[in-house]
Design goal:
two-stranded parallel ribbon; 4 strands; alpha+beta; two-stranded antiparallel ribbon
Length: about 110
């Protein structure tokens, strides 16, 4: 329940999207399994993932995998500047931390 509250508060404070390389059917299943309420944007060719530099890199979790996106999050300010980018295998459980980052950036003029 706390996770859902944090996710909803985050959603009220920022635009939040999930990028997913899966098929539309698999993405719907992801929503059912996770219970997330964020819009899922399909990124089958990893073009958006690549723009946000979230492809696996040596020495990072999932670093040896190819053809997949890193699990994590990116915070982009209104001027489209990436303010933070983090590989985080448990990003779904860290909605509260992401919310804190968004709050700090908005208070310091970074978002």
């Amino acid at each position: 329940m706390e996770l859902q509250r944090s996710a909803e508060t985050l959603r009220q404070s920022a635009e939040v999207y999930v990028l997913n390389r899966d098929t539309p059917e698999q993405s719907r299943r992801l929503l059912q399994i996770t219970g997330i309420s964020f819009p899922v944007l399909l990124d089958g060719d990893l073009a958006v993932t690549s723009q946000y530099d979230m492809l696996p890199k040596r020495g990072q979790p999932m670093g040896s995998m190819r053809g997949v996106a890193q699990m994590g999050f990116v915070v982009v300010d209104p001027e489209r500047v990436i303010r933070i980018q983090r590989v985080d295998l448990l990003f779904g459980q860290h909605a509260g931390q992401i919310l804190e980052i968004v709050k700090i950036l908005s208070q310091t003029g970074g978002g």
